[in-house]
Amino acid sequence: xxxxxxxxxxxxxxxxxxxxxxxxxxxxxxxxxxxxxxxxxxxxxxxxxxxxxxxxxxxxxxxxxxxxxx
Length: 70
Prior knowledge:
- By secondary structure, this protein is an alpha+beta fold.
- The protein has one helix at residues 2-19, and strands spanning 24-31, 39-45, 51-55, 60-68.
């Protein structure tokens, strides 16, 4: 009986994770320095919770194109 209860709890937990979504998706651009003139990378964060980046990732970023995931 404990095994069935454990499996049920695991299934409920996993199914709740499948529906957990971030509040928004967005694009971002990375710049070389604090002048924000030379773009060195870019990427996006999706409603599936994935982040994809290209180029160089720096501390100088601008977020744009924010869209609700709901």
